[in-house]
Amino acid sequence: xxxxxxxxxxxxxxxxxxxxxxxxxxxxxxxxxxxxxxxxxxxxxxxxxxxxxxxxxxxxxxxxxxxxxxxxxxxxxxxxxxxxxxxxxxxxxxxxxxxxxxxxxxxxxxxxxxxxxxxxxxxxxxxxxxxxxxxxxxxxxxxxxxxxxxxxxxxxxxxxxxxxxxxxxxxxxxxxxxxxxxxxxxxxxxxxxxxxxxxxxxxxxxxxxxxxxxxxxxxxxxxxxxxxxxxxxxxxxxxxxxxxxxxxxxxxxxxxxxxxxxxxxxxxxxxxxxxxxxxxxxxxxxxxxxxxxxxxxxxxxxxxxxxxxxxxxxxxxxxxxxxxxxxxxxxxxxxxx
Length: 337
What we know:
The protein has a single domain (2-52, 120-332), classed as Growth Hormone, Chain: A (Up-down Bundle), CATH 1.20.1250. 71% of the residues lie in helices and 0% in strands. It is built from 17 helices and no strands. It is a multi-pass membrane protein.
């Protein structure tokens, strides 16, 4: 996902597009399901999927850069397969050439680049972002985990209706790759526009992320409300909200880490956030046990509880907004003194 750096002002759009593609890949299981219903066993289908993994090896060795991608990109920087002779710049050459004539933008971003990993982990932005991701990820995992029992209950066990709604849900997952770039456009909407005097690129990106973080939390609330209502026709709209919100959630997670923290820590922070949020998502098994035990298969009270938990996600955009306002106030005080 760090390849988004190569696309300049469209960096966040590309990052969210990659994440949307990952989410849409789950629709492959619809193809496997349809093939199985046509008489093809699961084993050949999964063997074919495994064979397609060779494409990832080819991409890794021939397209991806061998070293770190510098930011900002120096003139003439290329990666991947090129036709004819091209000048390949090493990281040492880039650093040496870049140190000769530092630009004003680079000078402003130096303090951020000097942040250590421990400083990033201790920041409020990191922990509020982790909470933002964790509670909404739990909502999605819980919905997917209870989807089949819910459809069984709402259709009175009609297998044809259950199969139909399952297919519709799988088809909507294909739309994730179409929805995800919308979130990236929200992040990148201020790129190319003149920024406030003295405002760094990172501060402008953080300010732009507030709307994305808020909309993602709002979508999840609407999705949770629909998931609480035991209406079969309403599930069509719930499926749409689920895929839109999941695309915004996964894409916004990567895009926010990309703009809020130094790029040298992106992979470490991204992996840590995903790992910790996955651990938090283990609460879904406690919810499943509660639904199947004391609640006798009715997830209504669990859904209401998760809905209240999701309201905590609004703290994150508020925290980022207050952080940006604090930076603006400090900048105004420095300019006046």
